[in-house]
Design brief:
Layout lengths: L11 H6 L10 E4 L9 H14 L6 H10 L1 H8 L6 H12 L9 H10 L3 E5 L5 H9 L5 E5 L12 H9 L5 E5 L2 H9 L3 E4 L3 H9 L1
Parallel strand pairs: 1-2, 1-4, 2-3, 4-5
Helix pairs in contact: 2-3, 2-5, 3-4
């Protein structure tokens, strides 16, 4: 069956009125937040560079952006390894920039479409309970069965502990882990789940409903 190219706002309703029936390859979806659902990397990079300047450290935007795409810890180890309170100060600046969070175009529609097909959504984030505020502000909180934040005390990804917790608690068998960084993929694979390295909503939609 030929794949149907989808624009970011392509909806289940439109497919239904055209008589096109889609089926999903998975039932449960474990999402990352930043860089996957939330378009936050520019905000995070600017906050990181500004925090470095506060400590009289210079770094170019692109290098910081690339390091943050690996992980926050990698960026800190690269640019400020000996500053014990750097993460705290950086997160304060980042939180100010995220007061008006923005989802990737098509994210909410995809969450809704998956749920309409009987799928369940979960979220695993390294952030603290600020995550709950962010997803409330973006209007996607009702889609999630459970949200795991740093406050739950699980080791950081790529450790699979948080995903194994969800897998066991909810009996997840046909699960897909979706994230934009290698650590998301490593954690998902270690938990025995399928994985998808996020690049765009249209590509992800086609992967799920191919």
């Amino acid at each position: 069956m030929a794949k149907i190219p989808l624009n970011e706002g392509f909806s289940l309703f439109f497919l239904s009125i055209c008589g096109i029936i889609l089926t999903m390859n998975y039932h449960d979806f474990i999402w990352d937040l930043g860089g996957t659902l939330l378009d936050n990397y520019e905000t995070s990079t600017n906050a990181f560079v500004a925090t470095l300047k506060d400590f009289h450290i210079q770094a170019d935007h692109d290098s910081v952006y690339a390091a943050l795409k690996i992980s926050t810890q990698d960026a800190i180890q690269t640019f400020a390894p000996h500053i014990s309170n750097f993460r705290t100060e950086y997160k304060k600046k980042e939180a100010l920039g995220l007061q008006e969070p923005v989802l990737f175009e098509g994210a909410k529609e995809l969450l809704e479409e998956i749920q309409a097909h009987g799928g369940r959504h979960f979220l695993v984030s390294h952030r603290d309970r600020q995550v709950l505020t962010l997803i409330e502000q973006t209007g996607i909180a009702p889609f999630f069965t459970e949200i795991v934040t740093a406050d739950e005390g699980f080791p950081r990804k790529p450790d699979p502990a948080s995903m194994l917790y969800l897998k066991e608690k909810y009996g997840i068998q046909d699960g897909l882990v979706i994230g934009d960084r290698p650590i998301d993929i490593e954690a998902g694979e270690a938990a025995g789940l399928s994985t998808y390295l996020f690049d765009s909503m249209p590509h992800l939609h086609q992967f799920i409903f191919e």
